[in-house]
Amino acid sequence: MFSKKKEMHLPVLRGVALLIFVLLATSFDSFAQHNNTTTDPQITQKVRILSRAFDDAVNNNDAAAVAALFTEDGVLVSDRGPIHGRKAIENWYSGVFQAWHPRNHIGTPDGNDPHASCFSGDEAWETGEWSETEQARPGRPIQSRGYWSTVYIREGADWKIGMLIYNVTPAR
Hints:
Nuclear Transport Factor 2, Chain: A; 7 strands; 33% strand
C-alpha cells in the first residue's frame, strides 16, 4: 500500500518540480535580462515554428501531430487536470477531437520573444492568449478563449513542449 501511494504522488511531484523550475527560471531570467534584453533569434524562430505547428495540428484535429510536439515525458495541464506523457496527451486530444472540432485555433504570445533560461539555454518559456471556434456534433459553433503558458525544452537541434498549461475563460 505504501509503494502505491508513493507512485500516485510521483506525477504530482514532477509537476510541482517543473513549476518550481519555471518560477526560478523567471527570477533568474529577470536578473539576466538586465544584461541581455533579447532571446537568441534562432531560439525565437524555432519556438515560433513549434507554436505554429501546434496551432496547425489543433486546427487539423490531429492528435498524433499535437502529441509529437511534446517531449516524451511532457505534461499538459488542461482545465480538467494534468495529463502526463506523450502517449497520454495523444489519447486525451483524440478524445477531445472526437467530441469537439476546433478550428481557427490561434495562440498569440505576450511580448516579442520567448524567455530563454539563463541556466543552460536549453529551456525557454512564454505566455499568451489563445482563441478558437469549437463545433460539437450536433450544435452550433462556440467561440472559446483563454490563456496559456508553455515551457519549451531543447532536444538536440529541435525544441519540444515540456509543459503546456492552459485555461478557458468565461464567455464575454
